[in-house]
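Morning!

This is the sequence you dropped in the shared folder:
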Amino acid sequence: MGDAPVTATPEVREAMLAAIPSLRAFAISLTYNVDAADDLVQEAILRGWANIEKFEAGTNMTAWLFTILRNSFYSQHRKAKREVSDPEGAYAAHLGTAPEQNTKCDFEDMRTALAKLPVDQREALILIAAEGLSYEEAAQVCGVAVGTIKSRVHRARERLGQLLAIDGAEDLGPDRMTRAVLQSAF
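The structure's back. Tokens below.
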């Protein structure tokens, strides 16, 4: 084992190229698929080249590349166990995601509406709804009675509903058109 780090020299390149036929035969024996084997060999060579400084001078280049190829194969094999086979796209066709732009707009609308609330109402609402404090804890933080906190939170919620034009629970979340499209996909 040498102490000097190995660099990408023409000799190293030639040693890597000389290992390709053996790597390919080994990859075919692992995958039983020529195309997958070629991909595996290519990945092993690229990883070996990218990490050539980790190769110990004086050791067997082919054995080192075999190890990289084998590790890549098992990594791909483990990954494939977690993946869903969907060659025709039937599974993917049923997946849906709500568009993000509505959520971003809703967030900005909420920030604007919160800014329009009186400070005492905004403070009470944030302590209860966002921070998760109990009414008693929020009252202690604000230095007021529990009834005052409850009143402020109620008034803040009412005012937010007015500012955001929320009449009921059906007005929350994705708009009606988006919900209809997502429901029809299933």
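Headline: Confidence is low (pLDDT under 50) at residues 177-186.

More detail when I'm at my desk.
O.
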